[in-house]
Amino acid sequence: MGHKFKVAGWISVGVLAGALTTVSLQTVARGAMSPLPLEELQQLAAVFGLIKTDYVEPVDDKKLITDAISGMVSGLDPHSQYFDKKSFKEFREGTSGRFVGVGIEITQEDGLIKVVSPIEGSPADRAGLKTGDLITKIGDEAVRGLQLNDAVKRIRGEPGTKVTLTIFRKEESRTFPVTITREEIKTQSVKAKLVEPGYAWIRISQFQDRTLDDFVRKAEELYQQDPQLKGLVLDLRNDPGGLLDAAVGISAAFLPRGSTVVTTDGQLAESKAIFTALPENYARRGGDPLKRLPELFHGIPMVVLVNEGSASASEIVAGALQDNHRATIMGSQTFGKGSVQTVRPLGPDTGIKLTTARYFTPSGKSIQARGIVPDVMLDETAEGDIYAALRLRESDLTKHLDNTQGEEQARDKALEQAREAARKKLEEEARNAKIERKLPEFGSDKDFQLQQALNQLKGLPVLASKTLTERKQAKKED
Question: Does 148 share its domain with 175?
Fold first, then answer.
């Protein structure tokens, strides 16, 4: 069953509808259908009829039905979604790591489009778009009031054509236009380098078709450069997820053969599964890439870096390595995307992505709306993590699924107040200082968290955060 679960990645312009990438089961499994609620269906038919006869102008039947399906599905949780013909095609193409667009991961916030992150090396990245930027206009059209899919359609286009996005950047308190040329995005999901003799850094920016092969190739290159490696930092910060079989494969690279990586549970029999570190759960037709992995990597001391942008498949890897006591997890609490989505075709060119299960770490912990709590909490910089309160996680999303493990807690009013205070402080600094607050590039010599990870591997003192604590699950809002 290892090939059945996948993460829905790079929809449209790289949109991760609702929040971030989602694990999905690519099969059609049908159980016994419950009796239809006739009274409610009669009401639906009555509303349909009233719109057709009484609405101010004629409405197309297909649009009414499509909107009804879309609303029914999207009202369930942040990750269930209806695909029309175009978005379904884009969804199917997405996991290859290639698509035409500007190269941004986006979600919706307060009626605007929010940039989750630009894809490294993409037109959006080269144009200077940043995590947290808000898109207020696409061309001359305001996005407020637009559905996420409609905004995506306006951003997408043919390769070589241009789109102008109007950006509001909170930390600089300014609005400005950016014109970006659309192109085919070929994401590079694995980067690696020797940060110093004996210590390597491998960054996975998302889990896609080529990730496991690329990882093995990078590991081989590192081994050739230094056969005496003493430590490895696996960097999953801001990794929104990707294909589950790739996540299982990356976990299998470091775990004993047959170790449990992740389990899933839901109403369907197919949703109750255990994925282990065995080739049948990650290898594809080309064979097992891990046969080429230098033996050194199976036992090398490891640190895994995560943050609030680490979601779904990256949380699976972090949870598997943490629960199997294979690596020290460092950074900040992850996003908390622990639900499984099943992709069901509704015909030859439409479908739905429906939440069908939750996934659990090897020890049985649900990540949903909680995330992976690091063994060592780290601030982003040596000066602290001043604006961490601004970052949203799964538990902040409207209609998020409950964790099911432990009691629901009241929404954290103190956190909301801290978030508002941080926002105001950020705006005040932007007005007064006129300088850009920018985090160091991941993997650079100024990367504070990477330096702490290296200290951990060397047995040196680590500057752990004195302020970061575990965020508990907030009560969801209907």
Answer: yes
